[in-house]
């Protein structure tokens, strides 16, 4: 498969994360977090978001070439929401990877955090209420929605699936703001976990604590921001 990028010592693959490009919900200033709404075409990318995704694809391509990583070793795993699917298609095109191929995989575990019916389709100003709740208790769910800890648990499921299916690959995870913040938070904490011989699940479950999960807002991403996990 050729060279791969830097990876965390307890993982078989190297990972990059990419938040979707600027979307219609971003532009309208509304929360679209349910699977039902999030997969509607009307909530895809704006023209600006399409351009952002193209630039992110170009940047990712440059990073791969700089590390002598073969395109055969690249995988794109993405959320089923319209804005992430659209972003992933554009990135795949920039990389010259067929989107309808084994190299691109939709994963429902990478979907947006569901903030709950009381927040759905309302102003994104209400995110502040949820993040305040996270700071107080990341294990407590907003009404009808997901807690930060619950999102972390399904991201662990996604990571376990990717690690089981791939080896020596460079994986681009295309998802959303909160999930990618939480993903970074738990992986950074897991990197510092000193227990030897622990499997991925045990290592990450050990660090999904109140003190770790309350830090997730420290890892906020801009739209179409690309970061390597290392």
TrEMBL record:
Organism, per UniProt? Platanthera zijinensis
Q: Which domain of life is it from?
A: Eukaryota
Q: Which residues cross the membrane?
A: none
Protein name from the UniProt record: Phosphoglycerate mutase
């Amino acid at each position: 498969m050729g060279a791969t990028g830097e990876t965390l010592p307890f993982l078989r693959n190297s990972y990059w994360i990419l938040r979707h490009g600027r979307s219609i919900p971003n532009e309208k200033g509304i929360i679209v977090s349910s699977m039902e709404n999030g997969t509607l075409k009307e909530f895809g990318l704006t023209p600006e978001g399409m351009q952002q995704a193209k630039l992110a694809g170009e940047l990712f391509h440059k990073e791969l070439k700089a590390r002598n990583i073969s395109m055969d070793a690249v995988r794109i795993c993405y959320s089923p929401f319209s804005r992430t699917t659209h972003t992933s298609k554009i990135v795949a095109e920039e990389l010259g990877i067929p989107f309808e191929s084994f190299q691109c995989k939709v994963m429902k575990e990478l979907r947006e955090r569901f903030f709950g019916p009381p927040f759905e389709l309302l102003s994104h100003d209400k995110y502040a209420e949820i993040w305040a709740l996270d700071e107080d208790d990341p294990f407590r769910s907003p009404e009808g929605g997901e807690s930060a800890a619950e999102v972390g648990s399904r991201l662990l499921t996604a990571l376990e699936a990717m690690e089981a299916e791939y080896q020596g690959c460079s994986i681009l995870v295309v998802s959303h703001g909160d999930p990618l913040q939480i993903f970074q938070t738990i992986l950074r904490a897991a990197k510092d976990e000193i227990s030897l011989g622990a499997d991925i699940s045990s290592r990450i479950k050990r660090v999904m604590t109140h003190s770790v999960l309350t830090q997730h807002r420290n890892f906020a991403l801009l739209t179409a921001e690309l970061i390597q996990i290392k």
